[in-house]
What does this fold into?
Amino acid sequence: MNPAAPAIETPVDDVLNQVPPLTNYNLFLTDGTLLAAVERSGAGWAREQVTELGRLLGTEEVQRWGFDANENTPVLHTHDRFGNRRDEVVFHPSWHNLMRTAIANRVHILPWVEKRKGAHVARAALMMLTSQNEGGHNCPISMTFSGVATLRSEPDLAQQWEPRIFSSEYDPRFAPAPEKKGVLLGMGMTEKQGGSDVRANTTRAERLGRSNEYLITGHKWFCSAPMCDAFLILAQAPKGLSCFLLPRWTPTGERNHFYIQRLKNKMGNRSNASAEVEFAQAWAQLVGEEGRGVSTIIEMVNHTRLDCAIGSAALMRQAVVQAMHHARHRRAFGKLLIDQPLMRNVLADLLIESEAATLLMVRLASAFDAREADPGERAFARITAAIAKYWLCKRACMQVGEALECLGGNGFVEESIMPRLYREAPLNSIWEGSGNVICLDILRALAKEPLALEVLMHELRQNRGADARLNKFVQALETQLSQTTRDPNSEAQARNLAESLALALQANLMVRHSSPAMAEAFLLSRLNGEHGYTFGTLPASVDLGSILSSNH
Ligand SMILES: Cc1cc2nc3c(=O)[nH]c(=O)nc-3n(C[C@H](O)[C@H](O)[C@H](O)COP(=O)(O)OP(=O)(O)OC[C@H]3O[C@@H](n4cnc5c(N)ncnc54)[C@H](O)[C@@H]3O)c2cc1C
It folds into this structure.
């Protein structure tokens, strides 16, 4: 023993300056932006349900489900021990708990069964909460919700399947649909040779006699949640690419010829299974007209785009909630991080991005609510689904990355939720139209659907006079729009246009619904160029204190 060594006053396993876990909080009641938006959009009738789900998802037990389901990833069993095909994926019990919770809350069906004003917004609020807790299980939830929109183009099929889709009981058994208490839908469009360019699909459909029944042969390169009960898929029929409903079991109670080849080893979304599948004369039924597969499945795609916007807003919200929590408890250089001037700039900037995302996502959901009765809102929903999907998914990747850094090294370890949020973020941008494809779709919609442009501009002009910077930005956007829509070589500028449209929509919403400090900061930084290339570069005039103290 060295007599000169100083006495150790603090045992090495004393934990100092670490942050308490963020648990037992209500995800909904602590989100002032979402709370107000739900009320404003006529979805106040769902407040009790959303509040209860917000409480449940904030409990330690339910937070644990999200971790367990991602740490214990799904396992594919192609064959049984005797060599018979099994084609089943086995999930951890926590996955089933997450699914059961979402389905009991009718996140997979709410607007289809609840014919009340604001049903889409109510569902968006519910999904905003489930997605903060765990992203992967929202994939089958979203596909089931969206699939109904396409299934309805074939009323007989819809009538047959809807009663079981509309159940709020989760039934994970691998069994023929008529034997189950509740069923789920998936989607199969992407093939090896291309996902964006689905017209290049090689999967073939042969008609059986004169019926609407077909045999499907081919493959799908990405087919998520393969334990769903039926899939809306695309295949080449004699009259061209067509949409089909392909169930896992045939009507005679046999396993359909749907073979799961392997599961993808994904960087994120690990709780969910995404499979490569093959169909060898699998039995399916035509949905919509033969040869009009893309326009039939597009309704499903538009609804999943809404969900990508919801999912991305949720990732941003959860990321900034975690960052704020950490900064409120962690000290560095003699102060709490939340009191360090530069950290205040970063956090305020992250909060602004999250609020702008929530407002745009709710506005989009409310257009889905109004679209049946109002052709203008239908056109608005169509174009804004693409704009919001593009922008929120892109911003989530950056915003979540910056929020992660607020936690320092603790944000980089798997025991925190941050790596999971970070890995989930790019996925929303890839599926249902990757970034470029979405921007080209915006151009196409503007060119082909004059009403879309009209309603967008109507929305943006509503606030003319509210702020000179907004006014100037919208005027410049009008010039950009008329140039881009008239220029046959405008494709290369599609991202520029999509970005301006999204910012104008968000600014418009911020001016109407955010606190003056938030709205001012958004206008200065996002519209007026007073911002750098990273978060945390808000100009000195921004009232950081007011932004940081609001909404939590
Ligand atoms: C985890 C996960 C789960 C998935 N689950 C499903 C599922 O359940 N069902 C399903 O059908 N699919 C699923 N997908 C597939 C997904 O929808 C496709 O990956 C996506 O549509 C892109 O297709 P691709 O991968 O073939 O890329 P490509 O089509 O090859 O595109 C590659 C890149 O090129 C860009 N690009 C394409 N065309 C153009 C153009 N004309 N101009 C400029 N740029 C262009 C795209 O934006 C993209 O960035 C899943 C994907 C992932 C990652």
